[in-house]
Amino acid sequence: MLEIKNVTKRYSGYKALDDVCLSFPRGEIIGIFGENGAGKSTLMKSILGFIGFSGEITLDGEAISKKNIAKLSFATSEHSFFPNLSAASHRDFYREHFDRFSDKRFSSLMEFFELPMHKALKHFSTGQKNQFEVILALSQGADYILMDEPFAGNDIFNREDFYKVLLGILEEHETVILSTHLIEEVSDFIGRAVLIRKGKIIGDVKTADLEEKGKNLVSYIKESYNYRSDRVSRALNDIIGEE
After folding, report:
1. pLDDT digit string, tens, across residues 14-27
2. Which of 100, 99, 166 is nearest to 131 (CA)?
3. Could you give the C-alpha distances from 93 to 66, 84, 97, 144, in angstroms and in order?
4. pLDDT at residue 233 in the model
5. pLDDT recorded at residue 219
6. Measuring CA to CA, which of 24, 105, 199, 231 is 20 to 30 A from 47?
7. Beta strand segments in 60-212, E
């Protein structure tokens, strides 16, 4: 169990995270949704220990440290690989440092995305770099796989096919925590949605519960955010009225 208890993160005068409390059992695919600047990336970086915070984050009851950090992996569009190394060299590096690294999953995903094994990562396209980042995160052998906007720069066909593959390859102990703005695309693949706004958790729901109520994820998010459908028309009227 990954538990986040009363986590607050401040940046020079404002709270990027405000008393966040969440728990993530194993075996879930969870979507983290929110506006730009809502705190999604800050939450993930706090879990991984990349930034300091107040509060507590534990994995199976223990603080996250060098002893258990291998149970977490991270895929980010900011990239965390070595640009001068090839995919094959990354595979060898991960084999050496992660006991549960899966050669089979790595090779299968490389083939699925049709990525070259012996080409330096700096020569990959942006989409290919993002694909490779995801491959490393999924092959590391982690129990919790965090993904922060992992498919920026990828076409819709690659994204949709990957979601289907993801559902097929995940094992029971693996949990995916996915931050994305592509709500409609992932709504059929996630089992739980967590909504964050201005650093606060404003919604946490199982998608199956939404279906039972005859709601979809997009409508739930709009309701939770008090989205006004007349927002655009009001803005246009204000602009036109000023001219």
Report:
1. 899 999 999 999 99
2. 166
3. 17, 13, 6, 20
4. 61
5. 86
6. 105
7. 62-63, 72-76, 144-148, 175-179, 192-197, 200-206
- Six token digits for residue 213: 């109520």
Between CA 97 and CA 161 the distance in angstroms is 30
| Surface-to-core class of residue 237, CB atoms within 10 Å of its CB (0-12 exposed, 13-18 middle, 19+ buried) | exposed
Distance CA 235, CA 106 (A): 49
Q: How confident is the model at residue 240 (pLDDT cuts 50, 70, 90)?
A: confident
Within its chain, how far is the Cα of 204 from the centroid? 16
pLDDT (average), residues 184-198: 90
Angle at 165 between CA 86 and CA 84, to 5 degrees: 10
What span, in angstroms and rounded, lies between the C-alpha atoms of 205 and 200? Answer: 15
Res. 231: pLDDT tops 60: no
Give the contacts of 151 (CB within 8 A, at least 6 positions apart).
130, 131, 134, 158, 159, 162, 180, 182
Dihedral of the alpha carbons of 128, 93, 166, 57, in degrees to the nearest 10: -110
Beta pairing, strands 192-197 & 175-179? unpaired
Q: Which of 37, 10, 72 is nearest to 181 (CA)?
A: 37
**What residues form DSSP beta bridges with 7?**
20
